[in-house]
Amino acid sequence: MATLRSFSIRRLEPIDVAEVLEIISDCRREYGLANRLTALLEPSDHNLLETYRQRRSTYLVAIVDDQVVGGAGIARLADSDDSICELQRMYLRQARRGLGIGHALLTQCLQAAREFQYRSCYAETISQMTAAIAFYESHGFRRLTAPMGRTGHDHNDYWMLMSLPDSIHAC
Q1: pLDDT tens digits for the chain (171 residues)?
Q2: Per-domain boundaries in the chain
Q3: 124, β-bridge pairs
């Protein structure tokens, strides 16, 4: 894997929302979700700032050359026990994948999850996103046979869970 040395990661700011929504929409279109969804962007996507201002949640963006190139969030998994969070809206611009940015975003999200005292992290996606699945599994996520909680994403067909030990080790 090549790495990109000049990027930064920070919390979502109001000025970032339009770029994040564009990235989410582009990625969902890339993987054929336009055929599975009523709209590429859901109401919860449009409420990013409000969603991630909630207690025990955060959304991080990756910045290259003063532009948002991706993002990922952590929030409590709805209708689950209080110890489980969900990795949400982890998307990168296609040209920025495989450069270490996704690894850095995921690492910081999982660190935040530990700081929020979650014990497990849930993620879900679609089976066509094989590179994303391999990425998640290489970082410790394990496949589940059924979904957990209530994400509202009935189109997803691949579910994963990761234990969050207290100590952080390199992935």
Answers
A1: 565 668 999 999 999 999 999 999 998 888 877 666 656 777 778 889 999 999 999 999 999 999 999 999 999 999 998 999 999 999 999 999 999 999 999 999 999 999 999 999 999 998 888 999 999 999 999 999 999 988 876 778 999 999 998 645 444
A2: 8-163
A3: 159
Q: What is the pTM of this model?
A: 0.89
Does 3.40.630.30 match the CATH number of domain 8-163? yes
Greatest CA separation for the chain:
41
- Cβ pair 159, 146 in contact under 8 A: yes
